[in-house]
Amino acid sequence: MQTMARLNAWVGALEGWKRRGFAAILGAVSALAFAPVKFTPVMALSLVGLYWLIQAAPTRRMAFNVAWAWGFGHFAAGNYWIANSFLLDIGRFGWMMPPVISGLAAFLALYPALAGAAVWRKGDLSPAGILAFAGLWVIAEWLRSHVLTGYAWNLAAYVWDWSPAMMQSASVWGSWGLGLFTVAILTLPASLAADDRRPGRIACAAALAVLGLLWAGGAWRLSGDTGEHVAGIRLRIVQANVSQAEKLQGGFSARHFEKHMQLTRDTPGLDKVTHVIWPESSIPFLLDRDPALRQMIAAVTPPKGALLAGTVRGAPAQGELAEIWNSLVVLGPDGEIRGTADKAHLVPLGEYVPMRSLFPFISKLTPGSMDFSAAPGPTTLAVPGAPDIGPSICYEIIFPGAIVDEAHRPGWLVNVTNDGWFGNSAGPHQHFASARYRAVEEGIPLIRAANTGISGVVDAYGRIETQSRLGDIAVIDADLPRALPVTIFAEYGIAVPGLLVLVALIPMVRRRRSA
Length: 515
Fold this sequence. Notes:
Blueprint: H1 2-13, H2 16-30, H3 41-56, H4 60-78, H5 83-87, H6 90-93, H7 97-108, H8 110-119, H9 127-144, H10 164-167, H11 170-187, H12 198-223, E1 229-239, H13 244-249, H14 253-266, E2 275-277, E3 283-286, H15 291-298, E4 306-315, E5 323-331, E6 337-342, E7 381-383, E8 386-393, E9 412-417, H16 426-442, E10 446-450, E11 456-458, E12 464-467, E13 474-481, H17 488-492, H18 495-514
Parallel strand pairs: 1-2, 2-4, 3-4, 8-9, 9-10
Antiparallel strand pairs: 1-13, 4-5, 5-6, 7-8, 10-11, 11-12
Helix pairs in contact: 1-3, 2-3, 2-4, 3-4, 3-11, 4-7, 4-8, 8-9, 9-11, 9-18, 11-12, 11-16, 11-18
């Protein structure tokens, strides 16, 4: 305990640029808690240091500044991989990389900064303050996931993606609730540096007990799994590993399309497959305008099933295009389009330029001068010979509670993506980890087809049944796991984690009012 007090005193003695620099280092190091490294203890060290820095600040403004520095380091290190997308065509987009990466980190850092400023009370190392810090952290994460289109990347709950048992409580209170428990448990050791250590000891013992209960409850939930799969369904997921640089060069679209056809057709076992899934942008043509192309695809579509693929859709059906959508299409064995889902959550600068009239000199990263249009929101598609699907395209899958049309609950989630933009980096691993939490939250299995990986089958408990490696050409044949009954989070959404946040804030509010 004396060691904790000495460390807190050392942290509290830092001033000026040393204080902010140390905060930024702590934030950058915390990125190691997420995929692909998944070293959760480093998040505890980072959060304890951050909390000490906040409460050592002489003013609320200084607390805001030091938490912002932590956030800048955290988001700069955790999102470095975005830079790859600007380097694919460095002549056109290379100049955008420094302002976008630093600007994004600076903006996202405002959210932990607000949480730090709100919890600040000089020298307060009480468990009540730390519990409130966890509640405020979740409020900040929720805001980060919704304000200005939102960016729900690397939520605190995701530090447990290496442990299926620890992931399970997300079925009750979502990633928001699990994030609250995570931040509280990992930050509570900071209370051991207080002058009166008895409350801290009790709180840390309680935190260990809660951690054990979360794990045990998850293990118990997993023990009830019977491993059932949907009878009569055999899936084929095609990962063609098409180079994004080659895609952007143009002139290779026909070759890329044929590669998907060949992998589907020539990999043994097609006669046993009922449904084929191709990744985002695997068909770079306007299918509704090309019946001959649809008939070509029908040749590799299972006779009693369907082929699902990422493509582009345009309107009107004839003549010059007025709008385009990034879409997932369901094709029947007759080559007819049975259903289409358009992407609702578009990537800024990737698929459209925000406030384009103010920035006419900026182009979006994807080919073409026309911005993509956004669809209304989650939908459910009927698929011949299979349960209905809940489709999502690319990073739509990262948003908790926003991927399923609960009025028409699907039997499986299908996520098609092209992570080739980000190369062999942490980005695709973090994307896949986030997607697994949606399966847990909704109680619905996830089938993921990614151009360069990671493709795979995730059951309704978030466990990986099979997956490809990043950067490989792969064809995955697998059965479809069965969905679970509606989870508490799927039924009540933000209400349950919202109640947890209120409970977390009450002790601090009462304590400060009495003081």
